[in-house]
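Ticket closed. Logging final result for DNA polymerase III subunit delta.
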Amino acid sequence: MVGHAEAWREWRAALAGPRMHHGWIVAGRRGTGKASFALAAARELVAEAGIPQPPGDHPDIIILSALPASTEDERKRDEGKPYQLKRNISVDQIRGMQQRLTTRPTLGSRRAIIIDPADDLEKGASNALLKSLEEPPAGSYFLLVTHRIGRLLPTIRSRCRVMQFPAVADLEIDAILQQQAPGADADMRAAAIAAAGGSPGAALDFVNQDLGRLHQLMEHISNAGDGDFALRGALAEAMGSRPDRKRQLAAIDLARAVVAGRMAHVPRAAIPALTHAHAELVRLAAQAPTYNFDAGLLVMEIGTLLASLAPPRETAHG
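Final structure:
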């Protein structure tokens, strides 16, 4: 993954040091490869000389993430079909992990626990995790993947070392798109890069979820307004009648990118409206993983925020 060189330098320096910190926050924008880094780093952590390491799932790496939303979704997962996830990582999952920590690691002397994303921990789960971070069992190390570090409890943040993943350069994202989305032409790649804000994952979502039409409509609304709600209606149609949570998040992130892209090109008088719209979209992004939004109301709210950015039209004189 691109953009990980500094993170690897920091991690391997810590591994080589006399005392490895037991808690790490792997922070940055969604789609920058943090989860892949956390898994590879965990494998380096638990590997010991002379002990063969399994190529697949590792008994000394515990990964906690949102579970399938229902029994039906579990079946779809097992069949390799798309499925919905629960909104949170539960306190029961944390307590199950803590039970495992009462035993010794299986292969070596170290065990890694990855929580992805830690943003989605229930309140009770966060409090339960805090107890493990305050008194970590010997040989246990935590990697908390987070897209919005501000959602973590301050007491959790204070007990972990933060590893920040930066935005990825446009040229590097373009190379990733050419390799992983060969069907995207130059115009589509340029739009994806502009909307991604330095996140290769967001750029790939733009292409794979066919967000080009959404992007065009969002730009049009923010530039021209939408006095008769026609563009917001078109935006709702492009969004789809039953978008899943991933598409909802992608649409919110896309709207944030549209707002951010206007920051450098507007008069100072327009900045308060931009700031307000961006803050509201940040709020929606924080709520989307846990709220059951009505898709129509969500897209209308996004459209209304974007329409508020359009310059006022001059009144015609008779």
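The radius of gyration is 22 Å. No further action required.
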